[in-house]
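Input set for joint prediction.
Command: fold jointly, output tokens.
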Amino acid sequence: MAVGREHFGGRTAAILALAGSAIGLGNIWRFPYMVGQTGGAAFIIIYLAACLFLSLPIFLAEAIIGHRTHSGTFGAMEQLAPGTKWKWLGLLTVVSPLILLSYYSVVGGWSLGYLWQSVTSGFHASEIGTVTSAYGTFISEPWRPLLCHTLFLFGCAVIVSAGVKSGIEKFNKVTMPLLFVLIVLIMVYSLSLPGASAGVDYLVRPDFSKITPSGVAAAMGQSFFSLSLGVGTILTYASYIRKEENILATGLGTIGFDLMFALIAGFAIMPAVFAAGIEPGAGPGLIFETLPFIFAKMGVGAPVLSAVVAVIFFVTIVFAAFTSAISMYEVGVAYLVEQRGMSRHKATVLIFVGTWTLGALCSLSFGPLAETKIFGLSIFSFCDMLISNFLMTFGGLLFVLFVGWKMDKTAVRDEFTCGGTVRFNCIVFDAFWFLLRYIAPVAIVIIFFTNFFA
Ligand code: PHE
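tokens >
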């Protein structure tokens, strides 16, 4: 363990940072749609079960490695399994979050661009016909998206280079409560719109017939991505949690916030979508086509209110993306600082250069580089496919196998129960151990194949 390594101030700070990583674009652009499409309230119950019985054990496995070693991904593997092939898992989980960061920053940049537009010119009723196609035009341009990507990544770099306590912790402590306040404000507005009840209905009407094996696999996959599993971010953040802290409580707190935010985001978005009389969708289209259309349409009756809501919405999206992106950034910085002896500043710059370059290629792959294909996919789609469909689940599987089958059980129990001092944790340890060793690996393989054939 490195001497003088930084730590989060306490449990609240740790949960806010972890929730910052978890709450991101996934909560806003995918969860609400999945709920509506996959059985409403019935899906929410399945999702909750997936979080508790699958994602929580995986989350804890990653957290236990980080917390035990107080080291980044590579160093952790070197400490717990020195001189073995497990170091490749350490390296894999340095590389995956950086690839993820490269293209996440492109989308974060688009959000920044839309925030800029909502502050400066807004979305007007006169543009209702073109506001949707404006998205395609914007992302295929070379310069503006590139500038937005640069600014977004630079913002992350500034926060990360300021350090774990004065940068990441401080930023999350301010941003996370703000995110909740903003999304609740939007929800109140959205629910007050005429016709909003159809959106509420879409989200809550339970339809158990939609709960098919593929629906369950989808719930598991979404909870996996939403909790930022498999790419070393949880491990790295957990390595900054103080020794005496209760990891289970931290994990439950993170899951609770992530789920709460996803649900509120659903009630903030879907009622407005239905009130505007359009079909709900998912993915970037929901944020960059559907929402601007709604703002333009709402602007007919209440231009000022709609403009204010648009700004609040894009601020929320930008900050949610920021708090996730800095967690990916930190994984690489921790590696360079701890394993390569670099200063934090230099490490931040180096990662900026690398991820900016890959991100720039991803950004240009919507325009000038559209014809450049890797396995038939654009550069952006290839990176996304590589991470979301392969490396995340692969990393998650290896983490689970490592803690469940390779690590010393006494050490795992010691971490899980805070050295045997927390009674509740002692009671549930056996359940955790069973889920980790037998259920989680099988479930991850199912997620993998579902993603693969989706
Ligand atoms: N959980 C984040 C989201 O919902 C994405 C993420 C994945 C962040 C992996 C960090 C690591 O958008």
